Amino acid sequence: MKKLIVLLAALTMTSYAHAENIAIVGGEVHTMTSQGVIENGTVLLSDGLIDSVLANGDVPDGYRVIDASGKVITPGFIGALTSLGLVEVSSSSGVVDASIEITPISKTGAALDVQYAINPDSSLIAITRLEGITSAATTLNRSDYLFGGQGAVINLEGHRIDGNSANASEFKSGQTPVLKSGAFMTVDAGSDGAELSGGSRASLWVMLDKVFEEAKQASDNLSPEKSWYGINSRLDVAALKRVVAGDMPLFMRADRAADIRQVIAFKDRHSSINVVLVHGVEAWRVAKELAGANIPVIIDPEYNLPGGFDQMGATLTNAARLHEAGVEIAIGMDTHNIRLAAQHAGNAVANGLPHETGLASLTSVPAKILGLEKEVGSLRQGARADVVIWSGDPLEVTEAAESIFIGGKAIKMESRQTKLRDRYMSLQQKKHTNPSQYERVE
Amino acid sequence: MKLTPTKLTLLLACTMSLLTAGCSKQADNDNAKAPKVTIDPNPYPSTYTPIEGQPTLITNVTILDGVGNRIENGSIYFADGKIQALAESGQTLEVPDETAVIDGTDKWVTPGIIDNHSHLGVYPSPSTRSHSDGNEMTNPVTAQVWAEHSVWPQDPGFGRALAGGVTSIQILPGSANLFGGRSVVLKNVPNRTMQDMKFPDAPYGMKMACGENPKRVYGQKGGPMTRMGNVAGYRQAWSDAQDYMRKWDKYETDYEAGKDAKAPKRDLKLETLAGVLNGDIRVHMHCYRADEMTVMMDVMQEFDYQIGTFHHAVESYKIADKLKENNVCSAMWADWWGFKMEAYDGIRENIPAVHAAGACAIVHSDSDLGIQRLNQEAAKAWSDGKRAGLDIPMKDAWTWLSANPAKSLGIFDKTGSLEKGKQADVVLWNGNPFSTYAKAEHVYIDGGLAYSLSDSTSWPVSDFELGQVGEGDTK
């Protein structure tokens, strides 16, 4: 057994072996750690990890130096809540792994697990990472169950854009896009959840309490030989036990202030559960209580319309008000355009959120929510070398990611979209000398 | 004397109107032909009245006039609802004593933003089924419906759009149908009725749709279920409209020739289609794919009408040359893509690529959130273009937000640029509007201050929001 572990470790190392040693020097480095912002910082990457972050640091021998003077350096952004890798085209285009109907494997939806459904070749991966997002929480966006199943955190290294598939040893070492499976579980604790529970919150909360009580009380080993009459399936129970243990955060979606108070009360009744509020349009109205209950919030800060009666208090100042009350905020809920999370955070900043908090909402806060704060979301020693060099303020719509490193490897700044752009810009300039499908741009 | 009902009515009417000379003359000419049947082209006229404004002078300000000029440290003066003058740095404008003078140092002035693709009011907030009035999904050809008859002016989205500097909006029917019905252009001053917001003398538009939506909606409901079915549907409808026009032409010719002509029965569907073929109504066509847009431009030649604007136009970058040749605008998002197959080839440089090819580019929203920051959409497209080597100055990029949508809607003679004599639809920004952090500080519509960032009493509160959580809050 020991041998096997050593072998596996070696294989894991080799997967990073071709990540060169890189020194990014001269930039304005937002570490998202207690080191704060370092002017003229030196960020050293080696073996796919962050080696050190220092002001005016010396560069040891053997490092490729990248001059980032005048640029801004951040950790790679994290898509806080997406369905990346689970959907290519949303509508009328075959199976979408981001949505699910009732199946026999589960009774409450807790057992569903997206880790098996990730497609690292999805065109969305390259399109998204080009804009500085290097990892993402991904999960089902539609389920006919009470729970939306277990989400995963993936890195966006994706497939090799140069066409080389992962070699056999990498495959054996288990190198997949999944950084963490069973990373969180989702549930709708608002109108949609009520719809799934017979049409009323009167059953939704009774049901939620009941399924968790059942999971707590059920034996750790529900074997097929023993009869089981639970509301949950056996597999649901196993998943919920991890939630009850606090290992898997429970993402509870609610907008109406009254629903959010119920979320807080739920957390009070089930104190071991690690609760995260999602969407939270009226969260600002319950901000102090959320801060007191230590519940972080994932929001869309641009949502300011009463789309329904649960959202009457919608305002662009939601993020700023939550922050002022001491609530931790993550920003970024989308899939095809999760790349716009930086614009969303920028608009939160335009409406009163401090700038550095805006950056944290895209990096360190989602990392912490997902239990990966040592691995991603900050430039700290030993973290994954997911690093972005920006042309300027990343929250400014006119600035862009210029260089991106995932696991220490420089990403080729290319996607299906850039190839389409290049083909047709070339054709338009040549006034259609070639049939378009013969057009190649190097 | 036996009286026919008609004569009886006439006699009574004449008696009550004290037997005027006209009555006796008409009564004498009993056998004269019926009056010519004409159709009122404007049965729901605008009752819009601008907010009363004060003569206003903004000085030391960066001005994008919306037609390709940028003035640093300039001044703009508007009064009586109209732009009166712009001045370069150092020039002084003579203004009356009662003029409000605003120091525009570090601020920017642009024409008001015009969104030519919105469903505010027809798909309002709250988005309940009771409010879902944007798609008459009962037949693939519903040219007879008018979006203005669905507009709910209490949609809080109007006020939110105003805070984003949007001064005029085209409200379109949805895209479920081949012919979705007429659009209406509104001045974005939220009020009691649609008519109170209706842009005076704006031409009508008509919504058409290519591609996936009609075939998805009607594929199991009698068709069309394919793209070829869609095209057959457009062609048959245009043919029917041509036939209808011939009937009316014959009626008018016969009438003028003194014949006892009988007017054709009005067909509201064909009347709108005939309005397009006559050039009175502008075509706004939802179309994503380059190949489909090209087919539609052939249909347009076949039936001799003009497509004003392709909306969404995610693949316009592939055929920007053809769009230019055919004088068709593209109304686009900066970066939406992938939500369906026909949106799969979206690229971030679509808008600047269309502009660079010399075709007409427009930034549109199709969204109650996107409409609140169309300046940011333009900024993204502008910077994406720049990085791809399409270096378009901001002063030209602003045509995407005001002048080009105004042209698309047929209101460029009235608004869409800061030129002397035009309606004073003006936005004062508290910084460079190509920045995430800039906000509209003042929004003027016809010279009246419709929104002020610092004055909460100037923020529209819809009836729906009164007495509810969040009433009057910062939105």
Q: How does this structure look, described?
A:
The complex is a heterodimer of chains A (442) and B (475). Chain A is an alpha/beta fold and 442 residues long. Chain A has 3 domains: 1-76 and 378-411, Urease, subunit C, domain 1 (Roll); 77-376, TIM Barrel; 415-442. Chain A has helices at residues 2-17, 123-129, 168-172, 191-196, 201-217, 234-244, 257-269, 287-292, 318-324, 341-350, 355-360, 364-369, 416-430, and strands at 22-30, 37-46, 49-55, 64-67, 72-75, 77-82, 99-100, 133-138, 142-143, 147-155, 178-188, 250-254, 275-279, 297-299, 329-331, 387-390, 401-406, 409-410. In chain A, the strands form 3 sheets. In chain A, strands 1, 2, 3, 4, 5, 16, 17 and 18 form an 8-stranded mixed beta sheet that branches. In chain A, α5 (201-217) crosses α6 (234-244). Chain B has a domain at 112-416: Metal-dependent hydrolases (TIM Barrel), CATH 3.20.20.140. The model of chain B is unreliable at 1-28 (pLDDT under 50). Chain B is of the alpha/beta class. Chain B is globular and about 65 Å long. Chain B contains 13 helices and 16 strands. Chains A and B meet through α10 and α13 of A and α11 of B.
Topology:
The complex is a heterodimer of chains A (442) and B (475).
Chain A: H1 2-17, E1 22-30, E2 37-46, E3 49-55, E4 64-67, E5 72-75, E6 77-82, E7 99-100, H2 123-129, E8 133-138, E9 142-143, E10 147-155, H3 168-172, E11 178-188, H4 191-196, H5 201-217, H6 234-244, E12 250-254, H7 257-269, E13 275-279, H8 287-292, E14 297-299, H9 318-324, E15 329-331, H10 341-350, H11 355-360, H12 364-369, E16 387-390, E17 401-406, E18 409-410, H13 416-430
Parallel strand pairs in A: 1-4, 1-5, 6-8, 7-9, 11-12, 12-13, 13-14, 14-15
Antiparallel strand pairs in A: 1-2, 2-3, 5-16, 8-10, 10-11, 16-17, 17-18
Helix pairs in contact in A: 5-6
Chain B: H1 5-16, H2 21-28, E1 56-64, E2 70-79, E3 82-87, E4 100-103, E5 108-111, E6 113-118, H3 157-163, E7 166-171, E8 179-187, H4 194-197, E9 205-209, H5 212-218, H6 227-256, H7 268-277, E10 282-287, H8 290-303, E11 307-312, H9 320-325, E12 329-332, H10 350-356, E13 361-363, H11 374-387, H12 394-397, H13 403-409, E14 426-429, E15 440-445, E16 448-452
Parallel strand pairs in B: 1-4, 1-5, 6-7, 9-10, 10-11, 11-12, 12-13
Antiparallel strand pairs in B: 1-2, 2-3, 5-14, 7-8, 8-9, 14-15, 15-16
Helix pairs in contact in B: 6-7, 10-11
GO molecular function, one term (chain A): hydrolase activity, acting on carbon-nitrogen (but not peptide) bonds
InterPro entries (chain A): Amidohydro-rel (IPR006680), Metal-dep_hydrolase_composite (IPR011059), Metal_Hydrolase (IPR032466), Metallo-dep_Hydrolase (IPR051781)
Keywords (chain A): Hydrolase, Signal
